[in-house]
Amino acid sequence: MWLRIELPTGGVFLKTASEVASLLIEIGQRLELAGDSPFKARAYYKAAESLRTLPASLEAIVSSGKLRDVPGVGEAIAEKIIKLQQTGTHPTLEHLREQVPAGVLEILRVPGLGPKKAALLYETLKIGSLDELEAACQTGRLRSCKGFSERREAKILEAIAFLRGGAGKCLLSKAEAILLATRTALEASQPDWDKILPAGSVRRACELPDDLRLVAQTAKPSAWEKTPWKINKFQEAEVWAVPAEYYGLALLFATGSQSHLSQLAAHAAGRGLRLNEKGLWREGKALLCRTEEEIYAAMGLPFITPELREGRGEIELAMRSALPKYIQTADLRGVLHCHTTFSDGLQSLSDMARAAQAAGYQYLGVADHSQTAAYAGGMREEKVLEQFQAAARLNKAAKQNFRIFKGIESDIGLDGSLDYPEPLLNEFDFIIASIHSRFELDKEAQTRRVLNAVSRPQTTILGHPTGRLLLQREGYALDLEAVLQACARHGVVVELNANPQRLDLDWRWHKRALELGCLLSINPDAHAAGEMAYMEYGLKIARKGGVPPERVLNCMSLQEIAQYFAQRKKLVASG
Ligand SMILES: [Zn+2]
Ligand SMILES: [Zn+2]
Q1: At 289, which CATH number?
Q2: Distance 363 CA to ligand 1 centre (A)
Q3: Is this prediction's pTM over 0.85?
Q4: N- or C-end of the chain: fewer Cβ atoms within 10 A?
């Protein structure tokens, strides 16, 4: 059913944009290991990032003479890109490769081990790979090196185990960017292909996709495959090319998940149908499979949004017409949890306000870091007052239909206290309480700390509830059930931090949070205007968790949320 198509490889020896990007990153990392300026390395990282999201194939860009128009590509880097593309290497890279083995680059993935430390470990202990690092920690050899303790060894061992668990996975944002770039390249090279769509775990909005898959409709079936699952490779992605009459079927099977598909097949069987990779039949007669909608409808089901297809009860909900309401961009009315140059953000308050308005939001909730977060430019009291004035000025100048809410991302102290004395705390429109320190506390102590913070009347939102950083760090030990119960009891909103590195609260907990009565807030935690786009990841994850718009704080209109904040403050005043 699926076609095996010889895909263009772009000339036999030419490297693809994403292969060249990996080599640029290697040059940058090796420069850092060699003690070169981090600025120089950063130029390579920036160019690599641009290459990963090119609007056309690298070959097309080079041959049209447009390489220098790519952001971050100056003369020197352009020369390297062309050489890397043509030969797969460059004299600079070869020279750097002579200095340290490739295994040292793996060590850079361990949190806390930057180029300086990795170079030190290689020079002093000859540790040249992740395996050697692991062995050195297990035998206690690492602590002989300056700056490493027994506790540090244990931490590194944990981190290595975590990295190994994440092997073969990448962030949703990265996987999506790769697929979109592949799609663009395919559209350019295969003019008779149509409806090229991401499928697999990216379409299901898994926070760590483990496949890169596209489905494409082709009008020209040529060589038919006996086994439908022979899949073509193009760059890093699998491409399923399929004629129009089976497009829906291919999309359904390429999207998965396995357990959704097997439950769907069982559901079909219960209705006298047969569903498998070759089609959908009733009494031996093939039914239409052009769209997924047709397939679901033939089984007596409404369309099930891809994010929900995890085999966690969605088919039963669909049967009862009880699927959660689909939350989308237009439902979001405002954007909370944004940083500015008042702490560690890259843009001014007025720039962020302008960006929020341009994105169609009715309000911006600024939430810079509080004073304890000195590492992130946390604001001292004078600075908070200065920001209040700036916000007031901008609000005065703004039209009726836009407003800045004065918030703060307050560090949670070791005892669960919030930053700043109470009179100042009471001046904020809303307060996000977040943990940014002492991640290592045991479960009991950490839970007690968060419960204390949630029980403060000033706390409006619990920020990134588990503190996880995907592929880097597990969340802190926490009794999440107890925390969500407390949020419900105290009327504290639970953040769905939409930064693709966090996506925290994990979607697997959304249903429980809703059952308990919690509201969620989809927040970008933006440190630049461009990062407001993270809201799209928040929406995908909210859909995955089954969160409807009416349970999301920032789906409230400007009037509604102003009233909501005012009411919370009245509660504080009345003690
Ligand atoms: Zn934070
Ligand atoms: Zn933040």
Answers
A1: 3.30.210.10
A2: 20
A3: no
A4: C
